[in-house]
Design a protein that fits this description.
Elements (H helix, E strand, L loop, with lengths): L5 E6 H11 L11 H11 L3 E5 L2 E2 L2 H9 L1 H10 L17 E4 L5 H14 L3 E6 L3 E3 L4 H4 L6 E2 L9 E3 L5 E3 L12 E3 L5 H14 L5 E4 L7 H8 L12 H12 L4 E4 L6 H6 L4 E3 L1 H9 L2 H8 L3 H5 L1 E3 L9 H5 L1 H13 L3 E5 H5 L18 H14 L3 H4 L1 E5 L14 E8 L2 E8 L5 E5 L9 E6 L5 E5 H7 L1 E5 L4 E7 L1
Parallel strand pairs: 1-2, 1-15, 2-5, 5-11, 11-12, 12-13, 13-14, 14-15
Antiparallel strand pairs: 3-4, 6-10, 7-9, 8-9, 16-17, 17-18, 18-23, 19-22, 20-21, 20-23
Helix pairs in contact: 7-9, 11-12, 15-17
Length: 488
């Protein structure tokens, strides 16, 4: 993948369902056409496809999902005529790291992977190392690799009883209720660690990278704090992830590992060898904070920035149009899509979906907002330019355009420079108009020159000696943005 790659998250079951409805005789991933793959590459210059939800479905998870009041209530509001037959088991309640037969199995996945690779696109899959499904065969054959209570527990929401009579814990994030369709792995068990490493190495034959789910839950300290009273084993001398990453990279040096991680542990996970980590801090600041707070975050160490996954959408978050509002979501996308790091997009984001449906639901249709769709068509083409990938990224500071005018504080700006091309990104991240002065780093030789604004294709006449001396004065509407090109 390129530096600062573009990755598209696709819900495998929803995507397959749409193509089965649209295309005669379409059945499995093997039937995805080269034309469809070329569209993925050409529309967004996507370097990777994260195909979410390919693993064998848990029958127990499907039953739990179909009976879940929260899932059914959400669907009643969003799609009153939904069918329970369209509810599947959670893609993160793993029954087995075998490709779901509904998608065509292993051979169909590898055929799809080959088509992606032929167009320079990497295939990325999921690894949920913290837990397995409640009905995974290992819960019966090897209960000791899970968190286990020796006696009947008081908290029946946290534990479940297997057919063999063992009380096993559900997987859990310490800050949220347990995932009742999962069984919590004991990460201090050497046998459990060996099993997880075996699965990682097996999966690495099927794809070019992995998005590792909730990686921080497997860290020794986090795990000990969460499950200490139920763990007999001593804390291992080593963390799981450094060895696991090393083994995978020894087998596949070009394999890409991305981590879902929170709680300020991103750098620690990067230090363990992960290529990229979630940047939820940026997402939260884009959603809830102002330009100055966002600028503060972007001042972090450059290597950390390069290895961060930037997003305003994924299957865990509300659709951007609903979460941010239409215009703010576009400004947020320009920010996340033009800074250094891995840039993650979702299908629902690119088409302007307004409702986030439970991941267990496989919709029959995709609702397209033409305005949002058009915006991303233009934006993705702009940031496919080599300058945004191989160029040098420099964070800039907006200056006031006039005395007593502090609207410049709402402006974010940075530049990209490669060879003879200079791109200047300017965003007004506020609900009011803003004015500022931006100082350029590179200048053409001509005195009278026209800057090109990429979204509108407008040519802006400037005096080079004037902007060298005074900077470039700009005025932007609420949540307005410009990407200016200078060739020198």
């Amino acid at each position: 993948m390129r530096t600062n790659p573009h990755v598209l998250e696709i819900n495998a079951h929803a995507w397959l369902r749409r193509m089965q409805r649209e295309i005669k005789d379409f059945k499995t991933l093997a039937d995805v056409s080269e034309e469809r793959v070329r569209i993925i590459r050409d529309r967004g210059g996507f370097d990777g496809v994260w195909l979410m939800g390919v693993w064998q479905e848990s029958p127990a998870s499907r039953k739990i999902a179909r009976e879940d009041a929260g899932i059914n209530d959400a669907l009643k509001k969003a799609e009153p005529n939904y069918s329970k037959e369209d509810i599947i088991g959670s893609q993160y309640s793993i029954y087995g790291y075998e490709v779901n037969p509904v998608l065509g199995g292993k051979d169909a996945l590898l055929a799809f992977k080959q088509k992606l690779n032929d167009y320079g696109i990497s295939l990325i899959l999921d690894f949920a190392g913290n837990h397995l499904s409640v009905d995974h065969p290992l819960t019966l054959s090897d209960p000791d690799i899970f968190i286990r209570s020796e006696s009947e527990p008081e908290d029946k929401n946290l534990f479940f009883k297997t057919q063999n009579g063992d009380w096993l814990a559900h997987g859990k994030d310490p800050y949220f209720p347990a995932w009742t369709d999962t069984a919590q792995i004991n990460h201090f068990s050497l046998k459990a660690r060996a099993y997880l490493l075996e699965q990682l190495l097996k999966i690495s034959d099927l794809c070019d990278g992995l998005r590792c789910d909730m990686t921080m839950l497997m860290l020794n300290k986090i795990f000990r704090d969460a499950w200490g009273p139920y763990v007999k084993e001593r804390t291992p001398d080593e963390e799981f992830w450094p060895e696991a990453v090393r083994k995978v990279k020894e087998k596949r040096p070009d394999f890409v590992l991305g981590a879902e991680v929170y709680w300020g542990l991103e750098w620690e996970i990067q230090e363990m060898g992960f290529d990229y980590t979630y940047d939820k801090i940026l997402y939260d600041r884009l959603l809830l904070s102002n330009a100055q707070d966002i600028q503060g975050h972007l001042n972090a160490e450059h290597l950390y920035q390069k290895r961060s996954i930037r997003f305003i959408s994924n299957h865990d978050e509300e659709c951007p149009v609903s979460a941010f509002g239409s215009e703010k979501s576009k400004a947020a996308a320009v920010i996340a899509g033009t800074i250094t790091g891995c840039r993650l997009f979702t299908v629902s984001q690119l088409v302007g979906e307004k409702l986030r449906l439970p991941i267990q639901y496989v919709p029959n249709k995709c609702c397209i907002d033409e305005d949002v769709y058009s915006f991303y068509d233009t934006f993705l083409h702009i940031i496919d330019h080599p300058c945004f990938h191989g160029g040098q990224w420099v964070l800039k500071t907006a200056k006031p355009a006039a005395e007593n005018d502090d609207t410049y504080r709402n402006i974010l700006s940075w530049s990209w420079t490669q060879s003879s091309t200079h791109k200047i990104v300017v965003i007004n991240y506020s609900a009011a108009p803003a004015r500022c002065v931006i100082h350029l780093d590179k200048f053409p030789k001509e005195e009278n020159y026209s800057l090109k604004e990429e979204f509108t294709q407008e040519l802006i006449p400037v005096s080079i000696s004037g902007i060298k001396k005074n900077g470039l004065a700009l005025e932007l509407p609420p949540y307005g943005y410009k990407i200016l090109t200078v060739d020198f």
